[in-house]
Design goal:
Length: 345
Amino acid sequence: MSKILVTGGCGYIGVHTIVDLVQNGFEVISVDNNSKSNASILEGAAQIIGQPIQNYAVDLCNLKDTEHIFEQNSDITGIIHFAAYKAVGESVEKPLMYFENNLVSLVNILKCAAKYQVPNFVFSSSCTVYGSPDTIPVTEQTPQKPAESPYGATKQMGEVIVTDSVKSHPIQAILLRYFNPVGAHPSSLIGEIPLGRPANLVPAITQTAIGKLPTMQVLGTDYDTRDGSCVRDYIHVCDIAHAHTLALNLLIDKKATVNPEIFNLGTGDGYTVLEVIEAFEKTTGVKLNYTIGPRRAGDVVAIYANNNKAKDQLGWAPAYQLNDMMSSAWQWELKLKNESTQKNQ
Ligand code: WQD
């Protein structure tokens, strides 16, 4: 059984990936200092897979502490590196915090992969590396434009760091460029736990619908799109998770043709903000209280994926539709509310 180290394993995509990996025969350990996550999410994962997940509460910016994990686990055959700060707005306010955390942690985990001879490395990247593309859908060859935020810049720089590192170390890497991960595991035992007021669309929708937020804004309806609101490629987090399992299998089976391999992870369908809200209302029967607000600085007008390479070479096929994304996100929000109600009783 291959042992995989998942960094950021208590995060939204990390925990869903851990579940998928274990259900597909991998042994998994997590490292997450819980600076932006809660270790309790692993309890939900344990309920789904029927076994506990070990988490090392280590800051990956501390090389000695990170090396200690590899000294204790000499049988790690692959690393999936999720751990990073990811709030676009916060990255604009605190760029140096983002560059230090996201890049030092990446350099350290790559140093360990080289030192402890871990041959397989999957890097969590993002469609944000494309910036504002001239043509859509974007393929993996679409030229990158300047990042719209320091967060996006750390993903562009991260890809360069991985690409240059594998040239001089026996590591085969895959870069996975997520579009907009949304939704929650069908069991509602794991999902996204935003810190503070959610910046992202779908948690803003579900928190408004459940009354945690009084209202929300559609940030701009004067764009050159079919209804004036921005277009994105929303992809179910479980589809994203399964792509990581397929990526590791490709690496372990030594079927990668270039190093690193790069894959877009999107459905290939673009939906506007207003269409997502309409899908939420139709799927859940809940009317959303929103207003039309001003554009948000840095927003890309429209982006969605050409996902043919992931389909052809990873054997990946997104299984969830937009209504599944909306219903699972809503069920998770209801679960969180029930939990907080029980705690307050
Ligand atoms: C989507 C659309 C908003 C909130 C970012 C990162 C990306 C990834 C996902 C980390 C935009 C609109 C939003 C609201 C709104 N992050 N919106 N009202 O900006 O496409 O992607 O988050 O992995 O890398 O770049 O996602 O969900 O913030 O916004 O109208 O209250 O929803 O303007 O058009 P985004 P988002």
